[in-house]
Structure formats: C-alpha cells, structure tokens
C-alpha cells in the first residue's frame, strides 16, 4: 500500500469506513493474488467478497488489524481452502495451500501479517493485476463481457455503475458478469501471464477496458463525486505497465499519453468541497506539469513507433492542445477540430461528433456547430444521455434562443446521473439569460 493510501486509511478512522477504504485501494490486488494461488478466477472473487463481509463484522467490533490487506487476504485464502475441502476431500492443491497456512490456520484477527507476507510477493503484484486484466479480456468472452468483468473485478465498479455505462438494466449486467465468470471456469482459463502472441491478440480489448476505467474515474457517471481519482490512477498505473510490456505498440503509448494528459488537469478540476470547476475557470497553474511531460513523451513515442496515430493517440493529441494552451481563448481550436475529424473517420461515434461540435463552436461560433449536434440528435444514438441536451442547450444559449436552451438544459438535468454535474446544469439554468451563465464545458 502506498504512503498516500495509508494516509487515506488513517483518515478514514476505524470500522466500516476502514473496510471500505482498504477495499477501494486493494481489492484488485487481493482478487488477483487469490486467483494466482487458487487458479480459479471465479472462486477468487467469491472468497475475496467473503473476506470483505467478515471484515465488516469483525473490524468495527475488534478494531482495525495492523495489516488490513493481509488480514483480508488471509481470510480469503482460508475460505478458498474451505471451498476446496467442500469440492473434493484433501486434494493436492489443498495440501499445498494448507502447508502455507500452518496447522489449523491463524485465528481471525490474529497475526495476519505473517500469513500476508507468505502470500503477498511485492514483485508479483503488478503481474497479478495485469494477468487479471488479460484473463478478463480472454477471447472466449464477448467484448461486452470482457469490459464488464474487468470493470467489476479490477476496477471495483458496482454492477449498477457498469450497467449505467452500458445503458442496460442492473439485473442484465449482473447476469452478464455471472455468465462471463462461468464461461472462464468452463474453458479452464489458467491464471498465468499471457504469452507475447496472446498479449497482442488481446491488446485491443485490454486498452479499451483501461480507457473505460479511466473515463469512469475522470468523469463519474453517477454518485456524489465528479472525480474518482483512485479509479483513474489505477487505470494509469496499468496503462504504464502495458506500455512497458508492448513497447512497439503505438496505441499502448497513445492510451498512456491520453490518461496522463487528462489526469494532469485533476488538481484544478474540483474545488475543495468537490464541486466541479469547468475548463474556462480552471487555474492552469495547478495542472500537474510532471504528468503533462510524461503524457507528451508518451505521445511522441506513439508517433515514433507507429505509422500515424490511432484513436487513443489522436485523443491524446487533443488533450495536448489543451495542456500547452495558456487559456481557453488561446487554445488551438482549429487544430482540435481537425483532430476530431480524423478521429471521426477512424473511430466514428456520436460522442466524437458531439465533441467536434464543441470544438467547432469555440473555433467558428455556435451557428457552425448546431447543425452537427442536430445531425447527432436525428440519429437517436444518444437518446437518454444528458450530454446531447447539455451541449445543444449551451449552443442555443449562445445563439440567444433562451427558451429553447432552457428546455434542453431541463432535459439534461433530468437525464444526468451525477449529482455534481447536475449542480452545474442547475446553475446554468438559474443564470440563463444573464452574463453570469457559465459555459457547459
């Protein structure tokens, strides 16, 4: 656990809050380590959840153990042994695991640190988590199942959060995740680092999953926080590992550049109380210059090893335009428009078109952008998303069509699932028709 994470745990106090803090920080590593030891992906997640449930009962009663992650890991391993006992009387795997635990096992809340040290190899941790990502992206699963499973077991998102991202009911998503785990078990997918050929085969899925995890961390789809830095930084960490694993793959560097350059703005994106700060109002002196340097270096590497930028590289180039601009007004919006046009040809989507419209409005005015948004509206592909009415409302406001803007923004408020973002839209509505009205982006 990093020093900053320990500080966060210390601030969280004891009992249930500590359980939640440790789980948020360590769940992916705990599941990955248990998967390595049990060789059973689904069992690893089940016993990790059982250890979490036991912590929720024990820690508030007995206090937080000295080594919280080790405690969870030890309990999870004990539950795995129980499961093996149930499945088949003392087989070879159980014997090997039991020897590591010792006669009778350590008592709950006992010296978990000793057991933790036996099981937790610091040099193995990154490989464990990355292996977990590659397993979740195994070709035996559909692309949707790959993304959902990784978000669940590596990203730590709830089924409801993933369901919202996919725009499906929570029950549907839960069933999809359950089927994915059963499919992996039926296919007897081993828990082992993939071979170089397997890495290349699954790389597209892995990058897609890491991008989605980062996106949820940088713009939460629901809940009371606009940013989820823990989630975003986990995606960054794994992106760095992937880029090192496949140094000749341009898109791996492109994704790393994108997440570094985007995360560089985090320190200025929220106020102390968590309220969002829009781009035009951000204090650019607070942007993380080291992250910008890392992101620009990764973008240069993507250009060096590839035959032109891919979808992630193009988005990183857009982020670079923002990173090097002294202000919104001095941003090279025409270049951003060109980059979005290229992205639209390479990876067309209604969200890309919406972003291109925003850039067009900044470069050439709202009248040039509104037809692009209306074309997206006509396709119906963003029905149910607050993004389209919020952008359309802003363009209408800037065109002086106040009542139409009001209807769009009211719709955006109803559709938006994130409380912080909803506050921004409400403020926009309250100040509509006045000079105090902020831009929606």
UniProtKB/TrEMBL annotation:
Q: Which Gene3D superfamilies match?
A: 1.10.1740.10, Winged helix-like DNA-binding domain superfamily/Winged helix DNA-binding domain (1.10.10.10)
Which stretches make up the RNA polymerase sigma-70 region domain? 29-88
Q: Does the keyword Transcription apply?
A: yes
Keywords assigned: Sigma factor, Transcription, Transcription regulation
Q: Carries keyword Transcription regulation?
A: yes
Q: Provide an example Pfam family for this protein.
A: Sigma70_r2
Q: Which residues form the RNA polymerase sigma factor 70 region 4 type domain?
A: 135-184
According to the entry, every stretch annotated as the DUF6596 domain falls at 202-302
Q: So what family is this one in?
A: Belongs to the sigma-70 factor family. ECF subfamily.
Q: By what name is this protein known? A: RNA polymerase sigma factor
The scientific name of the source species is: Cellulomonas chengniuliangii
What does the record give as the organism's lineage? Bacteria, Bacillati, Actinomycetota, Actinomycetes, Micrococcales
